[in-house]
């Protein structure tokens, strides 16, 4: 097994890197732990496969719909998630957020309502509103540092005939929940009662903490397969976000037709980036050991955060992180004003984080910290925060 040095600091400046060069606050002295990509080098098989592909010298239109691509995806689902998916049910999209937009266009009409569970990944809101649909919020419950779903409210929201479906974030960004089988079944039970579809965004499905198991929604509830679409990608898992490639699992033939109409006829999306395809195949077929090491390293970063918070930020609550590499920190005991907290982080502590309010008003007073980076950087970030919040 190859050993990766995840403590290595890699200079990303000069690569048009969003995280390090285009950060909120535009202050080069700030430490960026915001946008969700990793500061770790990619797995060796990915780098080697890309070098070999570059040596072929021509980068023309490239077809994703081929057996090697499909086998890499379905093989990953089977090995890693015990999830059997037919090759014909896997559809390419240049990203999960674009896929969510296409699905909204395919499965609803202008003016329809779509349920989301805030505080949640803010592009859900943009995709719904930008396509002329309405956000219907089913806020998560937050009690004793843990988030759960409010099923009674979900029932009320999905009962509305103007609401067509919901976007589930599973695992949930930013609150870090990996929904249990029981929780997933309850959601499906309610959706089924009113015949509503569920788009399950599972982009973080491979990033789960030790001892925690993620279940793809189609695996959890195969009896509701006609109303479920699952969005997956190698991008978060293998740090390939810039490759713009994701895999959408659609089993209902009617939904497949609608999808093909929206992406093909309406938006002319068809060809994938040749580097994305090459990288994904090398990732899924040859890079599992890298992912295991990365997940273990992130476990260590999260444990370090927990110890640091207990010792140096005693009034903060760190929400349990079961999945993703995002720490969701409740700082309301220090500052409950969103502008003031943002100013404290960006201008005084000089850390560029995702501000909690961006995920909905339920997130005011929280900060989201991306810990998929060398431990020394996470440590520096926390020290800068403690200096401002506790004067340490
Ligand atoms: C829940 C969730 N969905 C989608 C995305 C982005 O997906 P893509 O870059 O494939 O559009 C992210 C990135 O942070 C995410 O956290």
Automatic annotation (TrEMBL):
Its EC number is 4.4.1.13. GO terms for molecular function: cysteine-S-conjugate beta-lyase activity; pyridoxal phosphate binding; transaminase activity. Keywords: Aminotransferase, Lyase, Pyridoxal phosphate, Transferase. It is an enzyme of class 4 (lyase). It comes from the Bacteria. Residues 43-383 form the Aminotransferase class I/classII large domain. The keyword Transferase applies. Its cofactor is pyridoxal 5'-phosphate. InterPro entries: Aminotransferase_I/II_large, C-S_lyase_PatB-like, Class-II_PLP-Dep_Aminotrans, PyrdxlP-dep_Trfase, PyrdxlP-dep_Trfase_major, PyrdxlP-dep_Trfase_small. It holds the Pfam family Aminotran_1_2. Signal peptide: none annotated. Coiled coil: none annotated. The keyword Glycoprotein does not apply. Belongs to the class-II pyridoxal-phosphate-dependent aminotransferase family. MalY/PatB cystathionine beta-lyase subfamily. This is cysteine-S-conjugate beta-lyase.
